[in-house]
Amino acid sequence: MDSQHRHELKTNELAEGLSHLPQLLKDNANVIIGVMLIGVGLITWPMLTKMTRQKAKAERTTITQSIQMLDQDVYAVLQAPADDPQAQTEALNTLLINADELLGSVSDIDNSNLAAMARIKAAQAIRTELHLRKEVNADMLERQIQKAKDAYQKAFEVAETSTIKAMAQFGLALCSEELGQTDQAAGVYQQIVDDESYKATVLPKQAQQRLDALADNTEVFNFAAVPVIIEEPVEVEEVIEAITAEITDPANADQPAEEPTEPQAEKK
Asked: Which domain holds residue 85?
């Protein structure tokens, strides 16, 4: 068989194979698509994982910085000259503005626990601003405490960890106290004490202390006579790190994180 003949045979075989290609692709379309998807997944998965970790880190950094800014704002209010009402007012307004901005930014946070923590810290700042302001009328008190309650309630609804849920409920109870709703506050405190999922946190103990304080206090709660109950700034770094770890390292998601402590409010 000469070379020309062999070339013609190979050409005919190639042509015949190509003629069957459309039918072959049609018969094996699902398999081919599956293989292609697996290939795309193998290529894109590391990229998506890296992007998720970077976003989680960026969110954590942003929230941490915002919380630190609120703490700095409180310090600025305390350091404002007592004989300079304008400086005090400006410092208080800055605190309130930054708290509102933190509340507005949570819609961009994918992680529900991180968003809940941001709402809790913003609510604490709103209540702190009321306490530090020298003149607070009844309308302002009710309006700002309601804003804080809304933030605590949303945090409770979206939080996935027992610690953050308990912190949100504790904040709701404090808001009820500040509005003079002592029966409602006592009911929430009792829920915290009775909830088995909170037993590993410090919140049931603090709730019981607030219950005992309410039982000892027979006077009607009055904001003008009794200052707003202030939660001192709490360290949330470990909570935020644990939240981020659930995204960046799923293998460690079940490991218990150290519970942050919510400082005991002063009894009245």
From this structure: 60-252
- What per-residue confidence (pLDDT) applies to 264? 47
Q: How many residues does this entry show for the chain?
A: 268
- Residue 250: DSSP 8-state: G
- End-to-end Cα spacing for the chain: 109
Tell me the two tokens of residue 11: 């050409």
pLDDT above 80 for 121: yes
φ and ψ at 252, to 5 degrees? -100, 10
C-alpha–C-alpha distance, residues 268 and 264, integer Å:
12
Domain annotation covers residue 89: yes
Neighbours of 62 (CB within 10 A): 16
Q: pLDDT higher for 189 or 227? A: 189
Handedness of CA 208, 194, 164, 181 (dihedral sign): negative
Q: Give the CA distances from residue 217 to residues 25, 44, 240, in Å, rounded to whole numbers and listed in that order.
A: 81, 62, 36
Number of structural domains, the chain? 1
Does 9 reside within a domain? no
Reported confidence tier of residue 259, pLDDT bands at 50, 70, 90: very low
Phi/psi-derived region of residue 236, left when phi > 0, alpha when psi is between -120 and 50, beta in every other case: alpha
**Tokens 């933030």 -> residue:** 151
Q: Is residue 80 part of a domain?
A: yes
